[in-house]
Amino acid sequence: MNEKAVSEADIKAWREDGVVCLRQLFSADWMQTLESGFEQSVANPGELSKDYADPGQGSFFTDHAMFQRIDPIRRFVFDGPAAEIAARLMGAAKVNLIDDHLLVKEPGTANPTYWHQDQPYFQFAGEQFCSIWIAIDAANEANGTLRFVPGSHQWGKEYQPVRIGLGDSPDAVEVFDGPAPDVDAAPEKYETRSWNLAPGDCLAFHGKMLHGAFPNASHDARRRAISLRFAGDDIRWQPRSYAPTETDLSGFKAGDVIDSDQFPAIWRA
Ligand SMILES: O=C(O)CCC(=O)C(=O)O
Question: Among 12, 37, 181, 242, which residue's beta carbon has the most beta carbons within 10 A?
């Protein structure tokens, strides 16, 4: 990746707002690889896949950990520019993959993505947690682009995780600092920001950033995306009662670095 691809202004926005929109950092070849990985992923859903929409009411399909079984996704994640983009934003010398998350909202899907932060879904302490949400299709308010509360990553809060397409919390969940605020119920209190994206644009945001997404109210515009989550140097293991995407992690103790098959170190300066 060209160093200038992520500018000093982008890094400043990442630090201060907790979210930055980066345009066209993935080549047409990388987007083709991602598209083919997408096709293979939906044809071979994993054990963590689910659909949040009611039958016949559109589809909000999600899946995780495709890098472990879908070759083009593995190449996109390991050899594409995303990890280096995250490193540059976080100022990290090493980047671990935390999760790859497929998120497809089909036309006519009423489910919003409920307000949440990403980090409380994982067993991590630290600040260098970066999600990069890459648009495979154009995304806008009508078909489900993401929404953010800029600066919320610095509130010093971690909110109770919810099932992102349903808004309720599984029983095992830790309460943390309570439920995320209902941003839409108090528009005078919270500034929200969203972007219209072209395929290949991405949104990079901090693990404690409060965010959600619009429903897909369009008639014919799919909204396919992959969200890659990365950890930088300061992330350490912090055991928690609820970690929906993690499997066999019995070897970790509080304070450990997270290098492992599940969280591979995929980029070094
Ligand atoms: O794609 C969506 O609707 C939600 C994505 C999200 O919350 C994330 O990537 O962290």
Answer: 37
Distance CA 264, CA 269 (A): 15
On the question of pLDDT at 172 being above 90, the answer is no
Mean pLDDT of all residues in 110-130: 96
Q: d(Cα 160, Cα 63) in Å, to the nearest integer?
A: 21
Q: Which atom of ligand 1 is nearest to the CA of 205?
A: 10
195-206 as b/e, with b when 16 or more CB fall inside 10 Å? Answer: bebebbbbbbbb
pLDDT at 254: 92
At 191 the three-state DSSP class reads coil
Mutate to test the pocket of ligand 1, among 62, 118, 133 (most ligand atoms within 8 A of CB): 133
Q: What whole-number distance in Å separates Cα of residue 72 and Cα of residue 102?
A: 13
The verdict on the CB of residue 197 being under 6 Å from ligand 1 is no
Task: For domain 3-268, give the CATH superfamily.
Answer: q2cbj1_9rhob like domain (2.60.120.620)
Query: From the CB of residue 121, how many other CB atoms can be counted at a distance below 10 Å?
Result: 23
Residue at 203: amino acid letter: L
The residue whose CA is least distant from atom 10 of ligand 1 is 118
CB atoms under 10 Å from CB of 115, counted, come to 25
The mean per-residue pLDDT over the stretch 166-182 comes to: 87
Q: At what angle do helices 71-79 and 28-43 cross, to 10 degrees?
A: 140
Token readout for 33 is 């690889």
pLDDT of residue 4: 62
For residue 19, report the distance from its CA to the centre of ligand 1, in Å: 13
Nearest residue CA, atom 8 of ligand 1?
A: 227
Q: Is 190 helix (H, G, I), strand (E, B) or coil?
A: coil
Ligand 1, closest atom to CA 144?
A: 3
**Contact predicate 81/51, CB 8 Å:** no
Q: How confident is the model at residue 173 (pLDDT cuts 50, 70, 90)?
A: confident
